What does this fold into?
Amino acid sequence: MTLHLASSNGSPVVTRTWKNPSTPAVQRVKWALILLGMLPLLRLVVGFFTDQLGANPIEFITRSTGTWTLVGLAVTLSITPLRKLLNWPWLIRLRRTAGLLAFFYVCLHFTTYIWFDRFFDVEDIIKDVIKRPFITVGFAAFLLFIPLAVTSNNAIIKKLGAKLWQRIHYLVYVIAILGVVHYWWLVKKDLTQPIIYACVFAVLLGLRVMWKLRGTTAGVKIAVPPVTKVSRS
It folds into this structure.
């Protein structure tokens, strides 16, 4: 995408490419991401009212919302690597949207469980969380997701400060790991999809660690001992 803009008053020509799109263009991409993110929900709604969710609709909804939570996490975590590899700085402006879409689906996932599966029976939910490890791990991931969503607005970022905010949002990697473990322990037999997600998150986390180590190494100053002059007699 290349767009050449020139004003009639002789100001410099601005060339818009995929590297530096205009703000309206980024907004359009953001809205496209939101609309794409809503398609799985639309599919569930249509399937529910047309009786196309299979013999066990509750299980279908639970699995689907869980899957799209992991997809949302993968998209969120891939934005920084793509930004660096493609040199498209504007991609970072999509990360919050992708993360909130993932949180939206994990809320649907959790709501389906406590409403349609456990009928808001608190005692039964607590017993289930304690008894079944995959529920315990999934519940922990959901709780860790909440502070990320709560702190995803500009006012809170300014209040917390960039460093503290960044430390809080490192939890996304813990959530991704817990999400894969939750899925892995749930399916038990066919581990194809959990393995795929595990590989994707491993690559994304590995890239982050590699860049972090490179940055640390680049920032280390090598101390050079002072040169002493030797006098000759």
